[in-house]
Structures are given as structure tokens and as C-alpha cells.
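(Fold this chain)
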Amino acid sequence: MKKYVCLIWGIFFSLVSYSQIDGPYIFHEGKSLRMIGTDHEGNINDTLIKKPSKNYLFTVHTQDGKQSFDVKLHPVTRPAWKTKQADKLFITSDPHGNFNYFSTILKAGGVIDANFRWSFGKNHLVVIGDIFDRGGDVLPIFWLVYQLEQEASEAGGQVSFLLGNHEELVMRNDVRYTKESYKNLAQKLAIPYNALWTENTELGYWLKNRNTMQVIGDNLFVHAGLSMDFLAKNLSIPVVNDTISHYLLHPKEKRNQSELAKFLFSTDGPLWYRGMVRTEESNHPIDKTEFNLILQKYGVNRIFVGHTIFTEITGFFGDKLIDVNVDNEENSEKKRGRALLIENNQIYLIYDSGKRIIRF
């Protein structure tokens, strides 16, 4: 890992042919910080901050430079896997690098204000995985969620980002869905893309300490779903979270050395399994009886997932299972729902306009 860092900081960077802003990627080097990114003119900037303040402040821009917000570094710890439910619980998933649509729905739900600051008080935001890939503003979304996590905590609220399958893909350097602009930057630095997300980076360490499964009140959140093979292993949620975090930054070959890790990262594991919402035999679907066994095992009344895209936020098993993943661009253009809000034991569908209707 150190050789990648040395490669980054040992090269003199000048004008390159990038037309979008990228960064900052923040590396920890002892008590110093190393920041790298490209500016609006395409220059790659490499800055060493030898004695950063405790809450070091920096600005993050979207790739087109039209939107920006400030971020403060803060201590990173693993969130509790089980918490009480706040008065309001806002749920979305799979933003996939699209900052405009992600920030729009958060504004519509009253989660953030016009300046991208937390405005949800003591309430709770849940993002069920998959910030990486497809869109061009992956890094700004990660930094926004990171910043909102701290702002929410200071206000008595909470932000929960759960790992998705695209997090596990990128962290093992499977970049088949990653925008060329990100891959090109890494190539120019002579490193694999996932070397920008190692444990000695701020966001890499933050990602390693995110949960895969989380219980909030009587609701369970997981990116893809839980299979019967998963249930048969009789795993506790902390064991799942700790195991996936431990192997998240490792290549597939290293993961496969552990039978548990090999399973958890497989198509029947919680990051990939589609059989809760898809009925094709290849997806190993579960039935209602099996689904109820999963509810009983984890002591919850409802499960929320993302991962599999539907035209509208969709309920299964008598609405005890809800898939919140939709096509953000298409749903916004066609004025369809894009997120959920739980308030006073009622579940509302949230639109970009701010309209909300009772859905489940």
C-alpha cells in the first residue's frame, strides 16, 4: 500500500487533459494530510498539510464546478448496528454518483437545506448503499454523506450509509462500471483506482467502518437482501458487519480464503442477493414462510432493500419488504416517487417536488 502512496507523492504533476473537477482524496501520513485532486482547469494539485487543525475544513466541488460545500474532518467510528427509531426516518438508496438527483431528493424531504447542510434535526437519514459507479459525482456524494453524518450527530440526529455491492466491487478494484474520468486519473497517477480508497485515506477508512446490516426501531436495512442460505448460517448482525468490513479492502482471492467472507460477498450474500424481490429460479427466491423466518430471526417487522431497480418504490410480502431503488433520472423526469419517509408509523412516498403521499 505504501508504494502506491509514494508513487502519488513522488511525481511532479502539471497540466493534464481533464475537463472536470475531481477530489480531494485525502491520505493520512502520520500527523500530516496529503490532498490530491484536479481543479477546473485540469491541473492535478498535490498538497501536504503538515499540521492540520483538529477539524480541518476544505471545499468539495461537483465535477462541473457548479455546486460546492465545505467539509470538516471528524473522528470516524463504526455506527451502532441497532438504534431506536427517530420521529422521522428518511430512506433512499443507490445514488450512483448522481449528485443533482441525490441532493434534490434530500432537499425535497427537508433533510438538507439549499446550501447542502443538515436541516433534519434529531431525525435519521438512511442511504442503502451504492454511491460508487455510473455517475460522475461519486466523490462529492461520499463527502456530502460524510459531512451530513457529523452535522446530524451535532444536532442529535443520525445518518446511516450502508455498504452496497458497488462498494465491494470498487474496493477490490473491479471498475467495470466506473466512469472513465476516475479510471483515467488513477492511470495518470500510475496506481489502481482503489488505491485512492485505501485504509490510510479518510474515505477509505470511513467506508471500512460502515455497516452492511442495521436495525432501526423494528426495521432492518440491507442493500440487496437475505437468502435462506444466509439464514441457515445463523449469523448475528455484528458478525456480518465485522466480517465484511474486515475483508472489504482485500482482493477477491484473499476474501475467498475465508469461507464466511466468500459467502457474504457472493450472489447469495447480503450485498448481491435478489431473491427477496425477484422470482426467477436463478435468483434462488424465497417464499412468504421463509421471509417470515428471517423477520423472526432478526426480531423486526419490516425489511428495506435497494439494489434491484423498479419503476416505483415497491412492496412485497404484504409490504413487509420494501425495495426503494428506482431509476433516479427517469423517475424525476416522469414525476414518480424517489424516496420514503416514515413518520408517526406512517410510510410516505416522497417526490422531487416535496409532495408526499401515503404509500404503505
Summary: Confidence is low (pLDDT under 50) at residues 1-18. The radius of gyration is 20 Å.
